[in-house]
Amino acid sequence: MGESGDNRSGDLLREMREGSVEAFDAFYARYSPLIFGIALRMLGDRMEAEDACHDIFLEALRRGGRYDPQRGSVDAWLAIMTRSRCLDRLRRGKKLVHREAWEADAIPGTEDAAEDKVLTRLQREDIRDAIRALPANQLQAVVSSYYGAKTHSEMASAWNVPLGTVKSWVRYGLNNIRKQLEKRGWQADENDGTKEVRK
User: Is the separation of the CB atoms in 153 and 163 below 8 Å?
Assistant: First the structure.
């Protein structure tokens, strides 16, 4: 993606932190194929890859302020983040499918920066509380995809609703989770995306 594309992606990250659902939709549409493709290649399972994809978009909502255009493109930033989270999953006992093939390839145009480790227990509790506060349809969609490892197509078929509706519920649910986290003491700033600030 060219410089103008990266500039637009940076704008989308900023607008997402400001609460724009339209920006989140545009960012999701632009980058979900990239993130899902990397996750599927590393994990070797479609449901696992969709679950990992949701993890990355949650993290992008929280940490978009950390993106530094001087260190590489948005594509590469997301690719590194996806790789790190997929390796976390593999280390937690998932099958090491396609890992050797992935490790043989390099992600061009970036510095391999160390990523934060898994969320603390308190942060996980905040996220669970935020999920429980979602409207019923978004709650069902996020829980089914994030915890139940259901694909969007499986949910659409089971609930007899259009595929696009399921995708919208998941996207809006993720955006509402970010807003709920801010209400629970996480706040967005220019330097660190959405971060935990407790009084």
Answer: yes
CA 78 centroid distance within chain: 9
- Give 194's strand partners: 188
Beta bridge partners of 187: 195
User: pLDDT digit string (tens) for 93-127?
Assistant: 544 444 444 444 444 444 343 334 334 455 666 77
Query: How many C-alpha atoms does 54 have within 13 Å on its Cβ side?
Result: 27
d(CA 158, CA 197): 40
Q: Determine what percent of the chain is predicted with pLDDT higher than 90.
A: 0
CATH code of 3-196, in short, is 1.10.10.10
Sign of CA dihedral 176, 179, 185, 187: positive
Q: Please tell me the distance from the alpha carbon of residue 44 to that of residue 64, in angstroms, as a whole number.
A: 27
Sorted by where each begins, the domain ranges of the chain are: 3-196
